[in-house]
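Before the break, one more example. Copy the sequence into your notebook; we will annotate it together after we see the structure.
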Amino acid sequence: MHLAARSQHIRRWVIPRDHYPMDRRGYLQWRTTLAKFHADTAATILREVGYEEATIQRVRSLLRKEGLKRDPEVQCLEDVICLVFLESYCADFAGQHDAAKALGILRKTWSKMSPRGVRWPARRACARRYNG
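Here is what the structure looks like once it is written out:
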């Protein structure tokens, strides 16, 4: 889990968002490409420093979000990703978009999370900032 969390956005700048269509389909293509890129990049680094293949494959699986909603570790990683967004980026994001788009993103983020994740206090901090 720690290795996957540390690798979640490894070298993300290599694949910029604006290289894909600026619509939902383009966003999903970008995210899929990033997941594979992060998994492959992490695997290369982990092999170079001597991690066992089983660990490497698990990190790859976590980064590709295989088993989301079914695998507790994949879901935990997704919860962490969502909570980091809510706590650290949500307010700025909401300020850059109209209210309908921001609300849609918040709803999508919320729906990705487990019941345990939505109970985390960080979500309230974002709601307070967004609601003024």
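The longest helix spans residues 24-48. The CA atoms of residues 39 and 60 lie 5 Å apart. Try to locate both features in your own notes.
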